[in-house]
Design brief:
With 347 residues, this protein is an all-beta fold. Helices cover 2% and strands 45% of the residues. It has 2 helices and 27 strands. The strands form 6 sheets. Strands 1, 2, 21, 22, 23, 24, 25, 26 and 27 form a 9-stranded mixed beta sheet that branches. The protein has a 4-stranded antiparallel beta sheet with strand order 3-4-5-6, with no helix packed on it. It has a 4-stranded antiparallel beta sheet with strand order 7-8-9-10, with no helix packed on it. Strand 19 and strand 20 form a beta hairpin. The protein is globular and about 45 Å long. The two termini are 23 Å apart.
C-alpha cells in the first residue's frame, strides 16, 4: 500500500464502521513503511496455475457496513468448516459453519462488539478461538456456545490489534498484532500468549503490519507475513518457544497491487500465501521457490477482491479458500500440493 492512497474501497475498509480508533488499519490506505532494502530474495514467475471452483456463497455485503469479508477457514475433526465474517455488524452471524457437501451454511455465533479476523481450534482444549481486532481473544465451543473471553488487555503497555493466530502442540497461542497500522510506522508485533491466557511474551516487534503467522511442520519456527512490505519472514524459536533465536526475510512476494495476507503450511512445508487485493493465493516451497498460483475463474474474479486464507483437510489434499469482494463472501475449493496437517488449518 502507498502512503498516499485513493479512496478505493477494499474489504477491510468496513472495519472502521465496527470499532473506533485504529480500524482504519485494514482499509488499504497509508501502510507504506520505510524505504525497501536495496536487495531482496529473487522471485520469478508465478509457477503453475491451480484452478479453484466455488463451493458456497456464504455472505453478501452488509447494509450496515457496506462490506463482507470472510476469514479464518478452519476444519474440525469431523470435516466441518468454520469461517468468520470480519465486517458483520452486531446481531448478524460473525462465525458461520459451512456444509462442504451441500454448500449450505448457518450462523453459530454473534455478539455486539467483536470484529473477528481469524479462527483456530486449540489442540489443548478443542475450543474455537477467535481473534478480535479490537484486542481480545474469545473462545467458544465448536457449536458457538459457551463464549468466554480468553485474553484481553495491554501487552507491554499497549493494546493489541489482533489479526491471525497459530497454536503450538501444547495449546499456547502465537498472534500477529498489527498495532494500529499507522502510516509510515513499523510497529507490529508477534506475541505469544500462554494457554492459560495469563502470560504474554513479545517475540518480535518493529514489523511492517504483520498479518499471517503459522508454524512450520516441525514446529521449530514461525512463518510470518508483513502486509506493508509484501514479505514472508522466518522466525526460528528456542526449545521453549518463548524467544526468537534468529529472524530473516525469506521470500519477497511479487504481488503487484496485492499484498500478503494470511499463511497456511502443508505437510511438505509448502507455504500458501493469501493475497489481499487479488482473489488468488501464491504457493511457495520452504526454500522460497514459487510453485503455483491458485486462481478462481476470471468471470468470478471481477466481483471479488481478496483471498484471505485456506484450510486443507488433514491427511488429504482438498483445500478450501475464503474469497470476498463486492459480490459477497465465498468458499472455493482446490487441490493442494501436499496433504494437510494442523498447520494447514487457516488461522
Amino acid at each position: 500500500m502507498n502512503a498516499r492512497c485513493t479512496p478505493r474501497r477494499r474489504p477491510r475498509a468496513a472495519l472502521a464502521v465496527l470499532a473506533a480508533g485504529g480500524l482504519l488499519a485494514l482499509t488499504g490506505c497509508g501502510t507504506q513503511t520505510s524505504a525497501a532494502p536495496a536487495s531482496r530474495p529473487a522471485q520469478s514467475g508465478e509457477g503453475r496455475t491451480i484452478r479453484a471452483t466455488q463451493v458456497a456463497h456464504v455472505t453478501d455485503p452488509h447494509e450496515a457496513t457496506g462490506r463482507t469479508l470472510l476469514e479464518g477457514p478452519v476444519l474440525d475433526d469431523n470435516g466441518d468448516l468454520y469461517v468468520v465474517d470480519v465486517t458483520a455488524p452486531p446481531g448478524e452471524p460473525k462465525v458461520i459453519s459451512v456444509d462442504l457437501a451441500t454448500g449450505k451454511h448457518q450462523g453459530i455465533y454473534t455478539d455486539k462488539a467483536g470484529a473477528y479476523t481469524s479462527a483456530q481450534i486449540s489442540p489443548y482444549d478443542g475450543r474455537l478461538y477467535l481473534t478480535d481486532y479490537t484486542g481480545s481473544v474469545v473462545s467458544t465451543e465448536p457449536d458457538g456456545s459457551d463464549p468466554r473471553t480468553f485474553f484481553s488487555g495491554e501487552v507491554d503497555g499497549s493494546t493489541m490489534n489482533l489479526d491471525d493466530i497459530a497454536f503450538d502442540d501444547e495449546g499456547n497461542l502465537y498472534v500477529s498484532d498489527l498495532h494500529g497500522m499507522k502510516p509510515g510506522k513499523a510497529e507490529g508485533r508477534i506475541v505469544r500468549i500462554d494457554r492459560e491466557g495469563g502470560k504474554t511474551t513479545v517475540l518480535a516487534d518493529g514489523l511492517a503490519h504483520p498479518n499471517g503467522v503459522m508454524f512450520d511442520p516441525d514446529l521449530r519456527g514461525l512463518w510470518i507475513s508483513e502486509l506493508a512490505e509484501n514479505t514472508i519472514s522466518y522466525l526460528l524459536l528456542d526449545a521453549d518457544k518463548t524467544a526468537v533465536t534468529s529472524q530473516h526475510e525469506a521470500i519477497h512476494v511479487g504481488g503487484g497491487v496485492a499484498q500478503t495476507d494470511s499463511i497456511a503450511v502443508d505437510a511438505d512445508g509448502n507455504l500458501y500465501q493469501a493475497l489481499h487485493g487479488r482473489p488468488a493465493m501464491a504457493v511457495y516451497s520452504p526454500d522460497g521457490e514459487r510453485l503455483a498460483t491458485v486462481e478462481i475463474p476470471a468471470r468470478a474474479a471481477k466481483g471479488l477482491e481478496s483471498a484471505t486464507n485456506v484450510a486443507i483437510t488433514q491427511g488429504g489434499t482438498k483445500a478450501y479458500m475464503t474469497v470476498s469482494g463486492p459480490d459477497g463472501g465465498y468458499v472455493y475449493r482446490f487441490t493442494a500440493l501436499a496433504e494437510g496437517i494442523r498447520q494447514s488449518n487457516g488461522g
